[in-house]
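protien #1 (seq + structre)
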Amino acid sequence: KEGCGEGECGACTVLMDGEPVLSCLVPLLQCHDRNIQTVEGIAADPEARRFLERFVQEGGTQCGACTPGLIVAGWKLARGRSRVRRREIQTALAWNLCRCTGYLPIIEAVERASECMRTMADQAHSHTGEGPGGETEDSDDAGFQGRREPATARR
């Protein structure tokens, strides 16, 4: 989904080879032989589907213009993690503008969607006897490419 066409809003965020990029800033030729995953592709994954549904239930959406980018960025952060810290969410979503919610509902929606996934993963691991995995060290680097500065720097 294109929002601004200038890399300012984050609505067009997709995963390219597993990393979030602003699709409006990526020339088409750079996409050749790359794995591109849109919000629709992410929603096809059953685990991501649960994340998406919880994000919506928790009030992370309003008008929907920014939602695709927020889902992609939030899912990239939460996928395979047993714990996501609020500061990490804020950093990962800093590239996405929302003019409706004031950000706190979005941050809380990602937080709760991630917690929901962790609870399901813990339940699955308790049935297999394995410990939960996927937790990574804290990082303020959201791994975002194709961007000059975080949108929060202008707010």
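ok now protien #2
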Amino acid sequence: TVSNDGLVYVYVWAEDLLGNIGLAAYDSIVVDTQPPYEASIIIENGALYTNDATPLLTLDANDTTSPVQEMQFSCNTVVWSSAVAYATNYSGFDITGPGCSPGDGTKTVYVRFADAAGNWSSPVWDTIIYDLKNKKIVFFKSYFSRKLGRDRTK
């Protein structure tokens, strides 16, 4: 029984019917039962709005025992994208695609990460407002809401 993750040596020896024990053979394996941790996602460098259906996602995850290798994306934690190789920047997830609400509005992007042993992290998320129709008004509202603390477009 292995109680901790990490490098483990396994020893094997054979015994014949007369009780003679052969030389031990051994090998090592890495035991990894823990998923990646300290995961994060930031959409479009923290912007409030985007008009890009495949915005830039800035990602991070760590794993003590084995490297982070894959990631998946979702808008609802039910329909997940195919796994892709882990990267710290990714712009291949369509926030209007399968499992996501169509059209303009607030979009939540979830990501989960897998290590080399196949352990998946819990999802983390970020949100952004997707707006194709009113990008000039959106900028105006965003600027004044942030600067003055109220909406000056009404």
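Residues 137-154 have pLDDT under 50 and may be disordered.
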